[in-house]
Specification:
mainly alpha, single chain, three-stranded antiparallel beta sheet
Length: 614
Amino acid sequence: MVDAHEKDKVIFAATMAATFEPDSMTNDKIEAATKGHGALVIPVFAAANSLAEDIFCPIGGPEMALMNRMMVVDAAAPELPLDMVIDKAVKAAMNAGAIPENAALIVAALAYFSGSCARSGVPLGNRKLGAIARIHAGAPRTSAIALVTGKFTHRIPSFPAYLAVYEALMAKKLTKVDGAILPPFIAGGAIYGHSALGEDYNIPELAYNAAKIGTEAMMTSMEGAGITPYALWPALIGATIAMEIVHPDALLGEKFGKFGRIDSATLAGQGARDAAKLPEKIHMRGTHEEFDTAKVIGDFGLILKDIGGPSVIGSMALSEIFAGFEESASIGAGFSGGPVNPPLGHLEGDCVPIMRLLLKHKGDLFAAAEAVREYKMNSFIDPEMALCGLNTISRKAEQVTRGAVTKVCILATEGIRDRAIYRRAAHAYDIIKSGKTVADATRTLDEERLAYVEERGSMVLSMFTGKKIQLKFTAIKPHGRRTDKFTERYWGFDSNASYDVTIDGKKYHVENLSGKEVPAFALEGKNRDNPDWPIALFAGAVLTQELQYIGHTIINITVPAAVAALLGTEAKAAAYGAEDGAYLTRAIPGAGDKAFDVAKLAGHIYQNLNTPFP
């Protein structure tokens, strides 16, 4: 006999089981991420928590806060407050699995956006942020030749930029000043480096031209590898190589601005910015603070030339840190800024906005959390899933290190996550109670999500492109070009997505996007004469991937499985029946096993709810 509060208890038990641990929420291998394997998301959170703790020190009163003492300063002291902050953050990142080179890069980037400057400029105590981070990490010194772009299907090492810059250098094309005609004792001293010839003519030319040529070479090389030349990393590498050559502490002449305002790194940043066609200003999510793009790129040239040799996942982590900017999608930064929800290993993009929000709100966690929730709700095709994913990875990060940044993430996302799970549990209960199967329930939830992604995704695409776009899938299934059993079950490995898309009133049909239409466009030139066709492919790629990456949050499978098990279906049958029905959420393997664990746990919770307390 079932008591009168059965539905409440079923929903409660299913919800508690689905959220028992972060790993229950996802198919992504987040346990491996606790030691940095394949992704640096948790080391980034660890470093951000460490920096936030030192910026807003809760012990000893306001005078202990380092908020105003984190600059690299002109000082003769052997150690600065920044040394202590960097050392602690580096150790936190390494404890979470980052190798020294990657830890140095992560911490330098986060410290820079927290208010530390990239340089000192004192000849004897010549401190620079990249070198400070590298030294505290214990990473070996190397040059920008060790740098590599993030992975955009492929990744390109910095060699093409070196080749282009040094060929131009040897051809004497980077500056009109010819060193062959200079008298002795001019180069190398104040008569050149801190005077007219250097600061007004040579240094600006050399910095700008070297960075521009290096950036162009990287972008051309990305095209040569068959990938889109996303702008951020070519610009960073171009600026870095320029700053290896150019006097790094030079201040430029009055025509560039007041004394001390414009330095050689800024000119390198301008050259890289112009070559990559980056916007002049970029803006921080949440705070809307405006940053000068050339200064940021140039400062990172200074940082990266001293940082050591980060790996490709270090480069990807830096890309995600740059996803904290509102323009991330257009500058080629990471994926965690939206609009597509990526796998959880990419979700570093909220760390810098949170640190800036904490600075703005004087450490108020709740004010920062409210701002994060607001911009996440407006930045993603499916903001509910975006907030669920951030909650999952933040809770996983807290198994390694706790702090203000992860706490803000949890505060920002907890209510939305709980609502998402409650809604699914209640919906699944009603469906199953009506006589349908758990597979019917999960299929219904997936169909509802598909309709939502089509509707909201069309709106987001219209805003992004400036055209009126309406997309409707006609088929989403596996086997775009394979025939094996594995990919037949898990469509994310070989999608076969077809859809109708209307662009400013013109209707097009795309049949088998990734298996046929994209190769036909790239290799055969199909429809290249139609300016709408690349937009049609782009639109489908965005929305297909939004559906394809759903392994990051599998509550459309786990929650109905728990409900079904509590309503009488054997736990294993409930779990794999739920996976069978969820034809979209079943993109990659693992959800059935997770659902089995959740269903069993839900049974234990429900049993205890109905056991009288002695």
